[in-house]
Amino acid sequence: MRAEGVQAYIIPSVDQHMVSYLNLVNMLQITSNDVHTYLGSRAPPASTSSDAVVIMDKAGMWTDGRYFNQAGMQMDDNWTLMKDGMPGTPSQAEWLAKELKANDKVGVDANLFSIDRFETMHKELAKSNITLTAVTENLVDEIWTEGRPPLSNATIFVLEMRYTGKSWEDKIKDLREQLISNRATAFIVYKLDEVAWLLNLRGKDVPSNPFFFAFVIVTKDEVRVYVDDSKLTNDVKKHLKDVEISPYNTSVLIADIKAEAVKPNAKIWLSKYASPYSAMDAIGKQDKVLLKDSPIALPKSIKNSIEIKGMKNAYLKDNVAMVEFFYWLKNEVAKGNSGITEMSSVTKLEEFKSAQEGYQGYSFDTIAGFGPNGAIIHYRPEESTNLKITDENTFLVDSGSQFLDGTTDTTRTVHFGTPTPHQKDAYTRVLKGQIDLALTVFPETTQGRFLDVVARKELWRNGLDYRHGTGHGIGMFLGVHEGPQKISIGCPKPWEKPVVPGMFQSDEPGYYEDGKFGIRLETVIMAVDAETKNTFNDVKYVKFEPVSFILVAEHMKALTMIDMCNQQVPYWKKLIDVSIMTPKEIDWLNDYHKQCREKVGKMLKDQKKEDVYKWLVEETEPISTTKTEVNGGQMLAVSLVTISFSFLSLFSLL
């Protein structure tokens, strides 16, 4: 920092592709996740949403609510935790303005700062006469000279049309039509999921994501891909006929951007929020730049009919594996197997998943948290934290898979013993929120932040809440988190788009008590056209259709008059208080479990898994409600005819 003449240095959580990937440490540029790897136990937790800010005598880490608990446990005295978005927490610019003096400089790697972020912070720091400057070299790069993981050399492969539903040539044609209509001469593709989707190629450079390191420049008459040539098989080279291949090197890319910018009538399309400031700086003149949202993001998120079919099939396969897993787990716990831990359960789940056709691995590291570990929203079990799974507390499992025909993400919370009344109430309110969102009908122009409250309101009624968004988009054999849509409360993001038919969306409310337990229920839903009686102002309406199907009720015993009457409720019906559910919610749950039996059950039978199938049928019998006289009062009793909610129907209805 002294050599560069800067008094502070910011290390963002994104890479040169403007995306964060947890544990991604083999990038050319260093991110805040790399700081964690470099410093080991001295560093804050690696996360997908953390920025490190270092000055001469101290360092701060800004992270969001998903990581507050984990950060507090892992950070040492060298770091100050900044709880982003919480009252009293200064922004990075505010903190720097307080810690630095006039005429000081703050250094950044311009390859790791989006155009919007660089310009915004530059203006904020200028108010205190502090300058934001792009340093020549990445400073963490300069000091991390030993022990760095090597770059991936995994080969790239073609994703066939039977999965993509559209050729890459047609996608390029559509992109060029966007260039013409916007009077642009070139578009620079930085984001790895956009590169993979556009070219119908996949790779293995990024853990849990089928991506490969590459950039793309598309002009009206040329496609240039910046990639390591050694990763291209003959099939890929044949696939990319007439495409110019250049080295995967940021310096080479910047040089070519400069060359494009000096051409007559040049207008290069960059995304203000997904293109690095280094590209803007390379172009130089503002009139040579078109700042607009990526023309790839929206088409990628709206799945075509082939992609929809594949996604639904991927969820069925994943749900079969998860049903097998929970069937195995409940039997092991019932037998008193003391060797079942968070880590061993993750290994067993992988075994079930890998048996399914087209399985390519996890879509993220499995979150498997028993009891207090379940309260750590993005917890990953490791040797030092690995707890045994017993019947004494809740067990939260958030797991996703990559298949050739789709990407999955499902969460269920179970309890193999006797949950507390508070756990039952919280679980049921989380469930009600999930169902309420799944039942919502809304105008096609609705952005996700306006839907977020639907999933929270039942928790809010009881003074409960959760520190994360309710839903994110999901890619088709791409990233498990995909924009430009999201269902998350808070300030609107300028790049956000409405939730429209063809988008796959997670529906995952939760509740967490630090040091005690965590509850989250995640089912994937797909936006589809809704038929409404009226069409006010000719506006079209949208609704959701579940895509993942996994048992929902099995482990939550209903806290109703059934308990008071000493009636016997099957052991597994433990976490739902049906007395606070509405008939409409129960109808939804019954229909959901019916689809579980029909869709997942059929695949279980086809795979000759009769014992698991029989258990599934037992656990998904419909719930019926009847009026029962108790002590002279009219009380609602529930014939929990095997409410299988333990697995909140491990089948995310797609």
Automatic annotation (TrEMBL):
It comes from the Eukaryota. Keywords: Hydrolase, Manganese, Metal-binding. GO terms for molecular function: metal ion binding; metalloaminopeptidase activity. GO terms for cellular component: cytoplasm. Residues 569-623 form the Peptidase M24 C-terminal domain. Residues 48-137 form the Creatinase N-terminal domain. Residues 310-525 form the Peptidase M24 domain. CDD domains: APP. The keyword Cell cycle does not apply. Its cofactor is Mn(2+). Belongs to the peptidase M24B family. This is Xaa-Pro aminopeptidase 1. It comes from Pocillopora damicornis (Cauliflower coral).
